[in-house]
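Hey L., structure's done. Input below.
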Amino acid sequence: MAEASIKRIAELAGVSSATVSRCLDPRHSSSVLEKKRTKILGIQKKLGYETNVFARKLRRKCTETITLVLPLSVFENPAYPDFSGHNTKLFFEIIKGVTMEAQKCGYDIKMLPLFDDSPETLKNAVAKAGFPYSDGVILAGIHELEKLHSAIKEKQIPVIVAGTHIAEMNNITQVASNPQSAIDEALKHLYKKGHRKIAFAAPEKVNAVNEENSSIVQRFTLFRNTLMNLNTYNEKLILAFEDEISVRKWLAENYKKLPFTALLCCNDAMAFRFIRELEALNLSVPKDLAIIGYDNNSVYTEENGLSTVAIPHYEIGSEALKAIVQMIETKRDINGNIILPAKFIKGKTS
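Output:
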């Protein structure tokens, strides 16, 4: 019996060796007609032929691997109610989107946590980008983003940013979400319900005008712009809460006469805490206070009917993977950003 090989499979299937190669390569198997693919895979199984993945990678000088760079905080305290909005669950949704799409495209994912933003750590991250480590890099949630991006791009390695908000960065392709229409819808929903005193709550350590947390800045800016268009913006109704204790203390002092009737929180963790503290004071949501969260974090929304501005974290990861694969396989950059819409989910709390 002739030795099993791509050439032998091609002869038995009545196709070219190139067609067999495409069929056995998970990244390109979908380009082969289903009838031919079924026949080729059947012959492969009958002959017991195993694809030499390592030889294929060396021949093409590729790794079929993509590096996903993440901050170390992603792997810590996954369910901790972090008012800064950097809840691990949201990053896991991005990771899930990346990895699920990678499986479809025939790529492996290598996660690289950054322990800090020191020059040495960033240098090490850059050194691990490109052959023989990976074919491209996705950056998510990294503070020293522009430095790292520039250094990787200088090595002519495909690199893209997966972010939950649009950041002002030059020459950096981003996959992000634009929540403008969703925030408009959320606030107009409150307005139609008769609310004219609408507050915004953000963490004290990254308050609404602190540029160190640009996602909070963006959320506040969109909130302010929409309310200004509705002639209901009140600067005195911008609140800061560092943690759940500060929420409890503020409500204990103000619950008898709340200075607002509706509240948009900068994330779902804060919205959830407000709801629980109000319940403890025998106040009703939304009767006594309408509340809308932000992110659609299932840790807080699944069982509570929380109204929220839903950011498509999973889709951001998925689209980032598609984009980096396109850049790798076409050897061309993507012009412009890939912006996904957010949506307002009207729950029981507004």
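The first strand starts at residue 65 and ends at 71. The CA atoms of residues 5 and 38 lie 17 Å apart.

-- N.
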